[in-house]
Design a protein that fits this description.
12 strands, 4-stranded antiparallel beta sheet, alpha/beta, single chain, MetI-like fold
């Protein structure tokens, strides 16, 4: 864990150092009566000088760590227990329980923490116990809010519903099923609460509200200020305890944020965070004027938390002609969606295009800046995202979302012209124009998919990339969406790239097929080549696993095993562990891409064997 996060290592080392100093303070420098002069500067006898009473500042510094850490730790314990308990109860039960507990939390949140703590300690009297009580009692509100939000997210998951279905009690669900899910976040938050508790203790002691009979870093600051350290230029009496406070707070901050990154990597690598710049390699643009898109030797890596690179796409090449539909097929995890997103440079932050070229007509996309890519997206190259319900914003009407895409690329368009264009696009995809004021949840699944296609058509692109456009649709709606895409291809001259798991969809409307396996090209060719003359064992296995109504008596087969993991790819052919025709060479040498009959390409050692 520490290797993956330097912040955790540094923060933990800083806190362990502070704790060790507090535990072994008496052995390192025993506390003795003052024998030296007042405010002696640092030197060989007194490394950090003396204070106004002649006490060695180094000794006081070591012993002061005990009180500061004891108050901080116990106050944090109270805050985390109270806040975690209130957060769990309010998030799980909801309703009146949540309203009551959250209104109490809001009351405490309205009042600033530090003035309230000062007032409480001033009323009940300065002592170590009272400081722990006041800091812990006031500091739980942030924890309660955080745990409530996490509990709300967890309690709607299916495993909670399953626990209720088998008769689990509320107590068992909370402590056995929900609490383990929120503990990682609670641990990271606890470290950050500790830093605030130590700061609050230091502030109280500095203001004279600490225990006068105890030594803490805040108490050292208080005595230095009130007894003339500034006027005597005894800077060491102020800097040393201030350094201790800063050391512990910085260690807590590093450890807390490091744990948050480890427990929740998405917080660091958000999908909207720009990823690394692509690394294009020189390739000649296509010479055929009918080719609208040419991908050459494309490679995409995912950067793992430990810094290693996992290759998701490796050496993939293909072309797309004008008015052509290209189908990309393969099992889940083979790199289909990654390949599609790379064409628009919309890869997640952890992904990097490490080699290759993408030519849109004569324009190389990987060498463009982000601003230039924004001019390409939607005008020349648009996308229909997988899962229309998630891709459409639920708080805006469908018409407004289509208009947004048009307005972004045509800002000078009048309101009337904009509305007319929206109506025109909706009519093209078979949606009544009066439904433009409806929200996505008011559409059926098929209509939402049509709305996504309409949005992709908004700026008259040359190419539409469709990521599984028929997913979760029934047979009738699937057929309607496929017919719509085919009609748009024929009427508008669109070129379409379609990612799908359904070979029946490919056979119905696609002209060419790219079969991916483990991020590499297994087979590439026309629909006739792929379905009537498949030469790769993986392609044949996919076809044999697909129902064929023309041969109802044919038994369906399954492909044993699973696709390879990106961080554990086999050394030779990536399909070798599952291939029924595997040979010894398949486990050691990666097959090259062989071209047969013009444009039918296959990467398999069987081709070499057949040719020899």
């Amino acid at each position: 864990m520490m290797r993956r996060s330097p912040m955790v290592t540094i923060g933990l080392a800083m806190l362990i150092t502070a704790i060790a100093v507090a535990i072994f303070a008496s052995r390192i420098a025993p506390l003795e009566n003052a024998t030296a002069g007042v405010y002696i500067p640092p030197g060989a006898t007194h490394w950090l000088g003396t204070d106004d009473g002649g006490q060695d500042v180094f000794t006081l510094f070591l012993h002061g760590a005990r009180i500061s850490l004891i108050i901080g730790c116990f106050a944090t314990l109270i805050s985390v227990i109270v806040g975690g308990f209130i957060g769990l109860l309010s998030g799980y039960f909801g309703g009146r329980t949540e309203n009551l507990l959250m209104r109490i939390t809001d009351i405490f949140l309205v009042i600033p923490d530090l003035p309230l703590i000062i007032a409480l300690v001033a009323i009940i009297g300065p002592s170590i116990f009272n400081m722990i009580f006041a800091i812990g009692l006031v500091g739980w509100t942030g924890t309660a809010r955080l745990i409530r939000a996490q509990t709300l997210a967890v309690k709607h998951r299916k495993f909670i519903t399953r626990a209720r279905a088998i008769g689990a009690s509320h107590t068992r669900i909370i402590f056995r099923h929900i609490l383990p899910q929120v503990v990682p976040l609670l641990c990271a938050n606890t470290i950050l609460v500790l830093s605030l508790a130590i700061l609050n203790e230091s502030t109280l002691s500095f203001l004279g509200l600490g225990d006068a009979a105890s030594i803490s870093w805040g108490q050292m600051l208080h005595l230095a200020f009130t007894r003339g350290a500034m006027s005597a230029s005894a800077w060491w009496a102020l800097v040393v305890p201030g350094f201790g406070i800063a050391w512990v707070v910085l260690g807590c901050a590093l450890l807390g944020h490091g744990l948050e990154d480890l427990f929740n990597p998405r917080a660091r690598y958000h999908h909207l965070t720009p990823g690394p710049d692509p690394t294009p390699t020189p390739h000649h643009p296509p010479t055929d004027p009918n080719t609208v898109l040419a991908v050459r030797d494309l490679a995409i890596d995912y950067i793992l938390p430990n810094g290693q690179h996992a290759r998701a796409i490796d050496g993939v090449s293909f072309e797309l002609k004008r008015g052509e539909i290209l189908g990309i097929v393969g099992e889940s995890g083979c790199g289909k969606s990654t390949l599609l997103l790379s064409l628009l440079r919309l890869l997640p932050a952890r992904a990097q295009i490490s080699q290759g070229a993408i030519h849109l007509v004569q324009r190389e996309l990987l060498s463009l800046s982000e601003a230039d890519m924004n001019d390409v997206r939607w005008k020349a190259l648009s996308i229909v995202f997988q899962g229309a319900m998630n891709a459409l914003n639920p708080v805006h009407t469908v018409g407004d979302q289509i208009a947004e895409a048009i307005q972004r690329n045509h800002p000078d368009l009048s309101e009337q012209a904009l509305d007319q264009r929206v109506c025109e696009i909706l009519q093209q995809v078979g949606i009544p124009t009066d439904r433009r004021t409806s929200y996505p949840h008011q559409y059926s699944g098929g209509m939402r998919q049509r709305a996504m296609i309409a949005m992709a058509l908004a700026c008259n692109p040359t190419i539409i990339c469709a990521d599984e456009p028929t997913t979760a649709l029934d047979g009738i709606n699937q057929a309607q969406v496929l017919d719509l895409l085919n009609d748009l291809r024929n009427t508008l001259g669109l070129s379409i790239i379609m990612v799908t798991h359904d070979l029946g969809v490919v056979a119905r409307i696609c002209d060419r097929v790219l079969v991916l396996y483990g991020g590499t090209t297994a087979e590439y060719g026309t629909v006739d080549d792929i379905f009537h003359n498949p030469t790769h064992p993986y392609t044949r296995a996919l076809i044999q696993a697909t129902p064929d109504l023309t041969h109802p008596d044919r038994a369906l087969t399954t492909i044993p095993g699973t696709p390879p993991q990106l961080n554990n790819l086999p050394p030779g052919c990536r399909f070798a562990p599952r291939c029924p025709n595997v040979m010894p060479i398949c486990h050691t040498d990666r097959p090259t891409l062989h071209t047969q009959d013009g444009q039918h390409q296959t990467s398999c050692h069987l081709i070499n064997t057949d040719q020899t």
